Structures are given as C-alpha cells and as structure tokens.
Amino acid sequence: MTLIPHIPVREIYTSFNSPINEIDCGEKCAPHNPSGKPFCCDICEAVPAVYRQEWVYLQEHTNLWTRWRGPECGSGPEEITALHADTPENMILLACLGPKQCQREYRALSCRQFPFFPYISDDFRFLGLACEWEFEGKCWVIENIDKVSLAYREEFIQIFDELFSRWPQEMESYALKSEEMRSVFAKRRRRISILHRNGGSYLLSPGSERLARK
Ligand code: SF4
Ligand code: SF4
Questions:
Q1: Which of 123, 152, 164, 179 has the lowest CB atom count within 10 Å?
Q2: Residues near ligand 2 (Cβ within 6 A)
Q3: Which segments within 83-122 are labelled E, that is strand?
Q4: Relative to the CA of 99, which ligand 2 atom is closest?
Q5: Per-residue pLDDT for 14 more than 70?
Q6: Which one, of 161, 131, 133, 158, lies nearest residue 18 by Cα?
Q7: What single-letter DSSP state applies at residue 157?
Q8: Which bound ligand lies closest to the C-alpha atom of 145?
Q9: pLDDT at site 88
Q10: CB of 197 closer than 8 Å to CB of 211
Q11: Is any atom of ligand 1 closer than 6 Å to the C-beta of 114?
C-alpha cells in the first residue's frame, strides 16, 4: 500500500476557492450536453475521484457525496470493474447530488481543479496548468483559456506546490499524465497550451518542450 500522508483538506478547500473566471461557465457548456448539466458536473461524463483523505473529511461534514456505483449511467459490470481498476489506489470514485444541489463549500479538489491538471515537465518541474484534453470541444473554459483569472491560477499553483511538498508521489502521477499528454499531442502534431506558473501563457512543443509565448 502506498504511503498516504495527511493533507489539510479544509485548508485546501478554503485556499482554493476563487472562480475560474467572471462568468458562470456552466451556462456556456450545459446547453451542449444532452443531459442539460455542465459536463464536469455530469457524473456520466466525468466520474469524480477524490483522495482517500478527502473522503474521510467529506463523510464527516456533508451528505453531498456517496460512493460511485456505476449503474446510474448505464455502465455494465465490465465497464465498472475497468474504471475501478484504472483508479489510482489513493483515490475513490464518488457521485455527488448533482449541480442543482451542489454545496460549493464541499466541492472536491477534482471539481476545483477541473479542467486543469498540474503539468510536470520531462525534467520533473511543475510548470503550470494544462487542460484535460479529453474535454476539448465540450468545456468552454478550455476553448477560452485566456479568460482564466489570475487569482485562480495563483491558487492552483500554490495548492499543488503545497500538496507536492507533502506528497512527492502525487507529483509523479501527474508526471505520468503529462508524459501521456505529450505523446498524444505529438501524434496529433499539436502544441500544448500551458498557463505557466510565471503568469504567462505559452504553447509547449511536446517533443522538445520548448515554450513559445502566445
Ligand atoms: S469548467 Fe468546463 S465543463 Fe465545467 S462548467 Fe465550466 S465550461 Fe462546463
Ligand atoms: S460537487 Fe458540485 S462542482 Fe463537484 S461535480 Fe458535483 S455538482 Fe459539480
């Protein structure tokens, strides 16, 4: 079993609370989802995963979350088993009450960071924010990355700096994800948008990791 350190869940939620931008982006994307929900709040589009430490905290404080079972989205036993098998052992799949009954105070870290993840370079530096590329074409924020607020970006960097200092293994899992993104984008012959920790916005070449300012 991997070492799972203590993480200060309440402090993380309090310090990572700025909106991504000035508008309610859910109103932009929900009309394009047949379910009528924002894509990131539709558990049939994105099953929320939380750290085990968060799950302990959430169970004590809110009724917003329950364990994800699968059939609510029509998933069959094989699909459910595969998704659980793909979930890192330090995380648990959950289902929330849905956007109409969301309790913003108890949104998971995965809700707050969406549609971004910390991009880790090949030489193991946390460069900044990269997009969950599977949601391109669905998530309005990804298509309007230049509108992401500076406050949100700064909080994101601060929270993951703190998390990685307590939990270096978690940085390794994002390094693997970043590597996967480089591989996908290299095949597509596309550069990767990075909201850099220095405040700038860049396009990163997946082969060389050269950065070009936008
Ligand atoms: S972050 Fe993206 S998917 Fe989520 S509500 Fe905003 S636009 Fe929709
Ligand atoms: S907890 Fe709220 S923000 Fe998170 S997925 Fe559910 S409805 Fe969306």
A1: 123
A2: 41, 48, 64, 96, 98-99, 102, 107, 111
A3: 91-96, 116-120
A4: 7
A5: yes
A6: 158
A7: H
A8: 1
A9: 87
A10: no
A11: yes
**Angle at the Cα of 47 from the Cα atoms of 177 and 147, rounded to 5 degrees:** 65
pLDDT by residue (tens digit) across 50-103?
999 999 999 999 999 999 888 777 778 888 888 888 888 899 999 999 999 999
pLDDT of residue 148: 97
In this prediction the pTM is: 0.94
Closest atom of ligand 2 to 43 CA is: 5
Reported as a single tens digit per residue, the pLDDT across 129-157 is 999 999 999 999 999 999 999 999 999 99
Tokens of residue 47, six digits? 């099953």
Ligand 2 atom nearest to CA at 107: 1
With beta carbons less than 8 A apart as the criterion, state whether 37 and 44 touch.
no
What does DSSP assign to residue 53? H
Which position has the token pair 């990075």? Answer: 194
Cβ of 141 less than 6 Å from ligand 1:
yes
Question: In whole angstroms, how far apart are CA 99 and each of 27, 35, 43, 68, 96?
Answer: 12, 12, 10, 16, 8
Q: Looking at the CA of 48, which ligand is closest?
A: 2
Assign 3 a pLDDT band (cuts: 50, 70, 90): low
